[in-house]
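Lab notebook: predicted structure, single chain.

Context: the supervisor wants predicted structures on file for every construct in the current expression panel, including those that have not yet been purified. This is the next one on the list. No modifications to the sequence; it matches the entry in the shared construct table.
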Amino acid sequence: MRVVRNRRRAVLSWLFIGLVVGLSLTLGVLQYRWIGEVSRADAERMRVSLQSALHRVSIDFNSELTAACAALLPDPYVHENPGDEKAYELRYAKWRDSGRYKGFFRRIALAAPRNGNLTFRLLDLDKGTFQDAPWPDAWQSTQTRLEARISAEPFSRPRPPGQFVEDPLVLDIPRFVFPDGPGPGFGERFRERRELRAPSAGPANRDPRRRLEMEWLLVELDPEYLGSMVVPELFKRSLGARGELDYDIEIVARNDPSQVLYPKDSARISSFADASGSLVDVSYEQLMRRGPWFRPGGGERMRAMAPGRGRWSLLVRNRAGSLGAVVERARLRNLAVTTAILLLMLAAIAMLVHTTRKAQRLAELQMEFVAGVSHELRTPLTVIRTAGHNLSAGLIHGASQIARYGALIEAESEKLRGIVEQVLRFSNAEAGRIVQTHELVSAGALIEDALRACRSVIRESECQIERKVDPDLPAILGDPTALQHALQNLLNNAAKYGRDGRWIGLTAASSTHHGKPVVEIHVADRGPGIPPNEWNSIFDPFYRGRRAVDDQIHGTGLGLSLVKRIVEAHGGVVSVTSQPGILTEFVIRIPASMESMNEFADSVNRG
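Prediction complete. Output recorded below exactly as produced.
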């Protein structure tokens, strides 16, 4: 019945384990899918957020640039002659004193048509005055484009798109005049000029809302300043304090992405940028409509400009890698944490099951121990009770019979004492009191005392003792009673289980273990032996081998457990080797007392 119940418990335990493992694997798969979905959503959210931030950076940058350019242009409705450099110089001085980003422009110049030619005057940024200068070599495309504009070609005729390539650094900002602008005679003077330049113009060219390009303000942007000062500040404003720290920035020309404007030593992130925006998109309509709302260095009213155009491309990449790689690393970390948690859960469940099964096994062993001890106690108690009854009833006559009964009572009492002492020592071991005293113990005397205590058991087993004890054994520091009890348990076991071989071997000698001197004691017998799968279990409390149970050999299952605890409490070790039917040998190694070793060495030296 108990076997069936144990089998049922084992089946239920394995079913529970299988259920938990299945649920854990299911949760792991679902968690893997959920983490993947969350990671993709995070990647998209980060990409959209970054793109939105770049959108704001583009609008803010273009607004600031438009405001800076607008601050340099004179009012188009004021009666100023073409090429009036003084108006530009005053505007520049005012902007330089109150503008936000004074490093926007690397060079500023003025180009104006004069007698069919294009004059060029360069502004000295330190003095704030225009001076004669040749066209810079880097501005050749701008010069060619402006010269084509002042050619004999009518202004009304549309130009083919892409005829001239725009310089990514140079902006040509026209100063418009209006033929029918405010003031007396303002429109008449310029209408005449327009008709001279376009004599074949139709009615459409006489629209009073027409404007004419009078001259051009040329500004060359400083990409180094804009990339290191303006863009990071706007970027930080849009993404917060971490934005500047988490992302690499690169600025390239839109019409030629291979032309890197900032930084010069870029690692080229254009092929795998996380997001991009456009810069340098000046709104000429906003420039032309300057009014009371304009404030130099500001651009609050210019934020409606679309950032989809521009001469520069702003490319951004996360410094830890692409956003996909960052999210993938985060996903792998989440998966690692989740897997570790699941493994810990499984390990905890496995440990719980193992502990539970071990506790059940221990409970079963304890029940078996109670049953065995009850049987062990009942037998001598019954013999003692019967012998005492016979003696008290006067049923025994003669000195010889009385002596035999007395010896029987003494023997059974000794068995009871041994059982009680075994249980008490186990109780002390559980309470941590297995070693009561520490004193120098003679190993030879210890062996003799153990043999003397086991004489009756050995005699009953009819085993022969073969002793090989080194007479110069060093002393042991420990509890002599506990050590004797451990050695006595080994001898009793050899006598009980070695009956078939009728031989017990006892060897003691000095040795070393891990480089330290020890007293090594061997107790061997030629009994049926111990199966290898039981070598570790025989030292567990209450454990009795299958052979002992099958042969109904009396015992409590505490002897070897006490041997191990006593030896380990003295800093030693115990081991077993067995060849069934040939030889079973227990070996205990207990550290020798260094004091006795020194005394022995001194005596040898004196001798």
